[in-house]
Amino acid sequence: MKIWIVHAFTDRVFAGNPAAVVPLERWLPDATLQAIATENKLSETAFVAPTGLKGNYQLRWFTPATEVPICGHATLAAGAILMSEIDPTLEVVVFDTHAGALIVRSTAEGYTLDLPRKQRTPWTPEDDVSAALGGVELIDAFVGEYANVVLDSEADLLAMKPDIAAINTVIRGPRQGCLVVSAPADEGKPYDFVQRFFAPGAGVDEDPVTGSAFADTAPYWCDRFDLESVVASQASRRGGFVRAVQTLASVRLLGQVAVYLRGELDPALARMHNRVEAHPEAPKRKKRRARAPSSCRRFSMIRCCRA
Fold first, then answer.
1. pTM of this prediction?
2. Strand pairing class (121-122; 140-143)
3. What pLDDT digit, counting tens, does each position of 58-68 carry?
4. φ and ψ at 9, to 5 degrees?
5. Which of 11, 55, 90, 271 would bridge 256 by S-S if both were Cys, CB 3.0 to 4.6 A apart?
6. Which domains does the chain have, with CATH numbers?
7. Hey, which residues are catalytic here?
């Protein structure tokens, strides 16, 4: 029961998006997986289990609140750990997931991750979406893996003061309470566009760096700038960068990782089964000695005083 905490889409610790990676010999009950993710308090915990084929694993992702159908940064982190620390003979890892087969490759510049590219559908947001973002002007909007809105400038995106509770209420699909906001980079910046990602519907108010959101935004900005690839920045407190190339059926992200922690979970967790939700038993205490009723004690004291 080993565990790694990996900072993804960055070349240094304390930046990028942290994810826990927990390799398993076999799947544990869902209640145990969720309890571990809740205890980790990271945006995602990735659990991987071998399929029996070399370089092929099953992969699931849990936030502190729920299981999610896809996560980019935790997939990149899991692939990096499998290739760099668990089986260094691997150069490619294929994950079987709820989102289909996801492939992570080791390269000289870091690791690549292929994510499915969803069809982009135009969207006309209601006024309450702009209000939830502090009243900013929305110049474009579309739906892919998530609901997406586009602002006019990086300055507008950085100055935005979102109402997280309102986002969770007004964004009803395709992923409840999940919204990507992107904008073109300011002139002279070393990246092409910048984004922020809010996911209170998944238990994450604002995510540091979101690979699955780049699978929506990168093709949009490639088309808008007429580029084959783009470099993007996520404007969170931790910050992170990714290079993205759109292929015929996927979006290929290139990023680096930095390992923050290598540790072990207690082996007893593998034997908990579904007892994680049971209330702990109170410790047994010594049996109290029986005490006489208060009236009897007063009568006894009177007799002693008279004697």
1. 0.85
2. antiparallel
3. 999 999 999 99
4. 60, 40
5. 11
6. 2-113+258-277 (3.10.310.10), 121-246 (3.10.310.10)
7. 44
